[in-house]
Specification:
5-stranded parallel β-sheet; 446 residues; Glycerol-3-phosphate (1)-acyltransferase; 2 domains; 15% strand; 14 strands; 5-stranded mixed β-sheet; alpha/beta; elongated; binds 2'-deoxycytidine-5'-monophosphate; Rossmann fold
Amino acid sequence: MNRQRIIAIDGPAASGKSTVAREVAKRMSNCIYVDSGSLYRGVTWKMIQSGVNTKNPLLVLPVLLKSKWKFEVRDRAVVFSIDGVEPGEALRDKDVREAVSDIAAIPGVRIFVVRNLRKLKKLGSLAMEGRDIGSVVFPKTPYKFYLDANPEERANRRHAELAAKGETEKAQEVLESLQRRDQKDSSRKTAPLKIADGAYVIDTSGHGIEEVTRILMDRIAELEKPRTDKMLNPVWYHITCKFFGICLSVVNRYKIYGLKNIPETGGVIIASNHASYIDPPVVGASSRKKRMTHFMARDTLFRNPLMGAFLRRVGVIPLDRDKGDIKAMKTAIQLLKDGASVALFPEGTRSVDGTLQPPKPGIGFLVAKGHAPVVPVYVHGSYEAWSKHSGGLKFKPVAVVFGKLITREEILGLGEGRAAYSLIGELIMKRIAELKENFEKGLIHE
Ligand code: DC
């Protein structure tokens, strides 16, 4: 069977996404290239043709809504006409280029374009490039990419393209115009340019088209490999979590806040504070309502064959806590890349006094290499319910708060390498501390 794929390729201007998206469409069967920016350019062109001020939404929208658009596929790419005229190469003219960011910032225009882009799905597989394809147009597709390159390299590429077309803009002018557009595209209120959650980021600086296309195709193949989390048995998982959920409701009257912050698809790390044996069941039983999650547990627990078989069925990854366990790390990273959810306790072990502890170094590494965003989680009351010192489960109230997603963009903003790993761990613990504070002040309600 020929599966339908929607390949979302986002990124700033001249990051290489058009060439790469075209190439990807060529290499896949039944796949069509879509340049979503050309629709925004089409709207701009139409307004210029009609003598409409492109900065005024009140004038733009009536003209847009009256126009008739027709889409067709030519040479495996989508082309369109507006009111019977194909703008073609005129979409690349300087006047269109300079006005298009204003047009693309108008919410009504975006609704119009997004609706038309979604309709193209009926044509088959799509390699669609743009700014918000993974975040807004097709947020559920597993094939999300974000291509980037440093501004100088992007400006050089654009300058060479323009020179090849006989345009005489200076390199410095091209760089400035590109930076102006980057700024407008990423700061506008509606659907700003950003790395979609779960998107695979490729820095194309210094890499050729062939190399980037290969990275992207390899990633698609990787996503389609039989999933590593086949080991997780959904029936066992749900029964186990349901059981824990009932116990926690009865004994600890546990309450769940912010479940909506867990994305339903794509790799994600759920990172919680840790003060009690009951934290994994609390996090598992509450996040189950959104998706299944892999936990890590001491490998010694797997020594008992029955216990080991059970833990594996519910997707638990064995971890040798005395050594930096490379195998467990690799399994978790692969799971995240495969689009699964992995729960972690950044502090490593249970807190001895219930207070938050500093993060272990491995957490930042895992987050960086897993290419996944992080949901910070604060579990309240678990220390009082069952601490390292109390002899068993007590009837104390427990609450779990899922915080706002720490996006890939935020994580990548912390830099690369070892220095970034510790910053990532610190950022996660800071977010957990903020959740704790807000919860204790009574500021968290739903
Ligand atoms: O990719 P491009 O240069 O042809 O894009 C033209 C403009 O449209 C640019 O300012 C960004 C905007 N755009 C957008 O806002 N969302 C998209 N999905 C694609 C393009």
